[in-house]
Amino acid sequence: MSFTNETFLYSFNPLPLMFVAALPGAGTIRSLFGPFVELVKSWNLPDWLVHWGHPGNMAVVLFAMGGYGTYLGMFFFFALGATGGITSLLTSDKPILESPHAVTGFIGLTLLTIQTILPTLFEGNSGLRNVHGILGSGIMTLFLVHAFLGLQLGLSY
């Protein structure tokens, strides 16, 4: 009789669903984030911190943790970063969901959601492991483009 100790970890993050619920406009997101944005504004943070805080944090996530995160899966940090970006734009009274950076972010989070679901399907189809790896590499490439578009957005105002 053999015993195998195998632990399966499944995760779900509802953040991408919030984005879907907000389509086609940003009004819902603005109303959801409104109280938090007002709180952040009341802190009187330096403009440079509000403007460059999200890019700085996300650069750490993408570059320092991205390599290892690609191996382990870092959906949570990217989804959390999206909330930071939205908060940063709203705190600066800038439009949201209207830039190529927002589009690539939404596509990236959607692909990360698919990436998160794929391991639950591995048992019946071992070929999905290859899809999972290729998709993960593609997502990291997309997030490099996303970072470049974010830098352009940050420099535009």
UniProtKB/TrEMBL annotation:
Question: Which Pfam families does the protein's record reference?
Answer: DUF4079
Name assigned to this protein: Uncharacterized protein
Instruction: Please give the InterPro entries that the UniProt record associates with this protein.
Output: DUF4079 (IPR025067)
Per the UniProt entry, what species is this protein from, by scientific name? Answer: Solanum tuberosum (Potato)
Transmembrane stretches, by residue range? 15-37, 58-82, 102-122, 134-155
Q: Which UniProt keywords apply?
A: Membrane, Transmembrane, Transmembrane helix
Superkingdom of origin: Eukaryota
